[in-house]
Design goal:
The chain is mostly helical. The chain folds into two domains: 44 residues, no CATH class; 69 residues, Cytochrome Bc1 Complex, Chain D, domain 2, CATH 1.10.760.
Length: 123
């Protein structure tokens, strides 16, 4: 009757590992975003510019902040990890369904390029 002993040993090992795994577990996090788990980034994400709601500095950051933060928090932007095509679709949806104003083409391109550079699943 060694089987029950082996089963108990496996259960004890599994239970001992649970607190360590559960400490950093976030079911809403992007895959690989939790530190210490396979696929996690080697270094933590930079905090971003506090004057721009924590958005990373870069070409188009200020324009993106003022265009987007007029309706929602920058936290919504920073949690995104979507494809470039989805950013384009989302832009159109915000105009047609949410009442976002149209922007001149050069400003639209600047903002979308910023979003795709910093918050795309393709990079």
């Amino acid at each position: 009757m060694r089987f029950p002993s082996a089963l108990a040993l496996c259960a004890a090992i599994s239970m001992a590992a649970l607190p360590a795994l559960a400490q950093n577990y976030n079911p809403l996090a992007r895959p690989g975003a939790a530190p210490g788990l396979p696929g996690a980034p080697a270094k933590p994400a930079e905090e971003g510019n506090p004057d721009l709601g924590g958005l990373p500095d870069g070409k188009g950051a200020e324009e993106t902040f003022y265009a987007c933060a007029a309706c929602h928090s920058t936290a919504i932007i920073k949690q995104q990890h979507i494809s470039d095509g989805r950013w384009d679709d989302l832009w159109g949806w915000m105009i047609t369904e949410q009442g976002m104003p149209e922007y001149p083409p050069e400003e639209k391109d600047l903002i979308l390029n910023y979003l795709k550079t910093h918050f795309s699943s393709e990079r």
